Amino acid sequence: MVTRSWLFDAMIYMYALSLLFYFSDFANANRNAKRMGTGLLLFVWVLQTVYLGLNLYDHLTQWAFERSDVLFMFSWLIVTISLIVNRFFRIELFVFFVNVLGFAILALNVFGNPRVKPIIAGWDINDELLFIHITLAIGSYAAFSIAAIFSGMYLFLHRMLKEKKFSQTVMRLPSLEKIEQYTYTAVIIGAPLLMLALSLGIVWVLLEGNNNLLYDPKVLNSVFILLAYAFYLFQHYAMRISGNKLAVWNLTAFVIVVINFVVSNFLSGFHGWIWS
User: Which of 3, 104, 148, 159 is the most exposed place for a label (fewest CB within 10 A)?
Assistant: First the structure.
């Protein structure tokens, strides 16, 4: 059964959005975010179930499972289990991480399936995988940039207040508490987006069949970025660290982002096209 990729593209984007809401719920104990994440994940499950049912019906006349069928069933099972766990237990972080795995498996199934055809004529199916990977990565970079701007504002405002310099500019800025919350929210958005972008990048490498690309400077530096922001979230969420120290760490993590975007692209074996 040949299928156009628009259905899977929509499925993947909704899957990614649902994981953003789940991560937001874990970080902020936001019930509305959890409901949104569950609703989107349930819709993904419905689409998967319909496609799986049609695919199984198609196999009634020719019973033969391919690798893509097994991977799709595995991804469907992960979503099913996570929905059950989410309904009866409060372990949001488990639901998030198990669905990152499900997300990667779904992408591997979709873009490694020769029966899935790209939407745009002239594109290879892997071009769509790269397009989704790039949009998620750009989204994460944008979120980290916003977080860095807020951290800079925090340090500036903190210094002005400490020195009792109440200028018109200072009076127009949000409070330190609000700026810190805005920074935290931006990182909450950026970190899972980067994680999902990395998972799609790994899927692309597996489909290319060149595992040496996993050691590319761009890939390794992206892992360091993810760890840096994970430590930021750990300091905020678990260690209850706030204020200048957290703002400085956030700016330090953003320096790694800048290094990744500028320096690594000159050293990367397959990301140099960004500067072409």
Answer: 159
Question: Residue 256 belongs to a domain with what CATH number?
Answer: 1.20.120
239-275 per-position pLDDT tens digit: 888 788 999 999 999 998 888 877 666 666 555 545 4
Confirm whether 122 is domain-assigned.
no
Q: Is 257 domain-assigned? A: yes
How many CB atoms are closer than 10 A to CB 239?
A: 10
Residue 4: pLDDT band with limits 50, 70, 90? low
pLDDT of residue 47: 87
Asked if residue 174 belongs to a domain, the reply is yes
Q: Domain limits at 101?
A: 3-117
In a domain, 254, yes or no: yes
Structure tokens belonging to residue 66: 């391919």
Q: Which two tokens stand for residue 126?
A: 């892997």
Q: Write out the two tokens for 58.
A: 């198609």
- Total of domains in the chain: 2
Contact indicator for 16, 136 with CB cutoff of 8 Å? yes
Question: Do 74 and 11 fall within a single domain?
Answer: yes
CA-wise closest residue to 202 among 193, 211, 192:
211
DSSP secondary structure string, 209-251?
Answer: T-GGGGG-HHHHHHHHHHHHHHHHHHHHHTS---THHHHHHHH
Task: Give yes or no for a contact between 78 and 101, defined as CB atoms under 8 angstroms apart.
Answer: yes
53 in the same domain as 24: yes
3-state secondary structure of 29: coil
Q: What is the pLDDT of residues 83-142, one digit of tens each?
A: 898 888 777 778 888 888 888 888 887 777 666 666 655 566 667 777 888 889 889 999
Dihedral angle, C-alpha 45, 48, 50, 53, nearest 10 °: -120
Q: Give percent of the chain with pLDDT exceeding 70.
A: 83
Residue 207 structure tokens:
């489909």
CA distance 1 to 58: 7
